[in-house]
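Issue: ligand-bound run for F0G - logging full I/O for the record.

Environment: standard queue, default settings, no custom constraints.

Inputs:
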Amino acid sequence: MDRWKTIVEPFRIHSVEPVRMTTVAERSAALEVAGYNLFNLHADDVLIDLLTDSGTGAMSRDQWAAIQHGDESYAGSPSWFRFLESVQELFPFKHVIPTHQGRAAEKILFSVIGGPGKAIPNNTHFDTTRANVEATGAEAVDLVIPEGHDPAAIHPFKGNMDIAALDAFLTSRAGDVTVVFVTITNNSGGGQPVSLANLHAIREACDRHGVPLFLDGCRFAENAWFIKLREPGQGERSIPDIVREIASLADGMTMSAKKDGLANIGGWLAMNDDALAEQCRNLLILTEGFVTYGGLAGRDLEAIAQGLREVVDEDYLRYRIQSTAYFGEALAAAGVPLVQPFGGHAIYLDARALLPHIPPLEYPGQALAVALYREGGIRGCEIGTVMFGQHPDGSEAPAAMDLVRLAIPRRTYTQSHIDYAIEVVQYVAERAAELRGFRIVQQPSALRHFTARFDLLEGS
Ligand code: F0G
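Outputs:
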């Protein structure tokens, strides 16, 4: 395999979805209607949609076939048992509670173990995880290693937890921490993996302090592939074997099957603790549904069960990680500033470095994301001062970084789509000095990035 440098997608296309070609003039008009917020676009007006890798991937022939086996019995459906078996094959937790997506699992768990005075450390909380912790009055604390905050720092496991900081936190807040979380891979930190050695060290710290450890497992298969590639002594192991070792270090997990479940919807909450599981199941019945479907149709459970078998396939993971790196390497070679090393599911452009003439409070990430759409019909996602600069007291401050995430849906775009995206990013980067910042003309009191409206600032 190593003889050839071209990435061969390990699938053929069986069913196609048309994408609509648009002109710069049409996209400029669409941007005006959308108030320059890419979440407000009609997706038909997007050529290559890199907004998220969540629920946007292509399902396989075997997943569509499994959907035909979906059994919609309210209780005890055979589809539920196939789902359960597939989840426990990789994550042998005693209790598995199905949910409609990841944040529903978070909401249920933190409703039980959060609350005022409590604190939940994580390498980096994803925004819904943080919001669900904070909604209960608890504190969400990020303890990633220092390299995890520096876009240009090279480290093989940039998602690792800072063990000394975790130990100190567990000592100073003894009694307040109801769970330690670790997000694999670390999405908010650039899709960066966590090493097995770090997971063992987190487990030991949790044992020293008598606190349970939970995984946010959304991209567990990509994380396991990075462990196989980069961690000494792991190269000969199978991916399921590595995943089971990761699971054995934890007491439970939350999961969005919209990522490494290779499904368009779904998730779960799992744990070993009987009493905690009972409380979570009672909440599940209130909001999601009965304990054997939890907000999903039987056919969705089937799609996830099959997706979990496919996502640990090495041909798939090699292609997945290589094709993300291909995108990043081409942009790096063209001198575009990026978060390095490249994550598993996305490339993160460093808009603050590319657009030094646009101050953070004029939203360089927004300027770059809008330009990529206007010039080439590519939709990415600002992850910077628009997303994180608004504070609950109404004040505004620059975020730590101003990035644009180009997330890659699984098994969906070909190498020529990515070649085109490379061309567009390069074209926009060469004209970066011409871009102007934005001001916000309308925004809600929280999570403004979804609905805010913007106006282009006049050039000086
Ligand atoms: N945890 C992580 C690390 C995530 O990336 C996400 C979702 C969730 C939890 C929540 O899962 O969407 O199924 O409720 N991330 C998506 C993204 C939305 O675009 O990165 P969900």
